[in-house]
Amino acid sequence: xxxxxxxxxxxxxxxxxxxxxxxxxxxxxxxxxxxxxxxxxxxxxxxxxxxxxxxxxxxxxxxxxxxxxxxxxxxxxxxxxxxxxxxxxxxxxxxxxxxxxxxxxxxxxxxxxxxxxxxxxxxxxxxxxxxxxxxxxxxxxxxxxxxxxxxxxxxxxxxxxxxxxxxxxxxxxxxxxxxxxxxxxxxxxxx
Length: 191
Known about the structure:
alpha/beta, 8 helices, 5-stranded parallel beta sheet, globular, Rossmann fold
């Protein structure tokens, strides 16, 4: 068997080990945010930042196209000048926590993505969101790390392989989006 097929089989096996109850809880959080007009804020570093940025497209634009009303979603790493300004003036560990303090309110949803679960800037942002009484959700791997300890709810990818973890996070978020879209579409009255 080639290395490519082995990699794909490994990911397929890991998908089968995901905690579906934790995924359903994330769908419920996002549906609640849409219904009540709350914000959804995502963040991550490196590949996890790209995952957060990507899924905002689906959550904001596609939900709006399907329902006529947007899910207010944003990714905190998308404003490069702001991230670098906070990194320069407050330290990289604070780039997301300071933005959370600006944008997040009570009952908003804050999702931190960290493959290792130990990214200080993501962990500190989740702690800041908890202090603001937001709903916090962590997506991690490697046993969950500090993110699983501080987030109110979590999905821990059952792997220590960073590529597998990142693959699983994107699969999960696409499944969450697709399920959420169908659920919310069914709640919109037809004209």
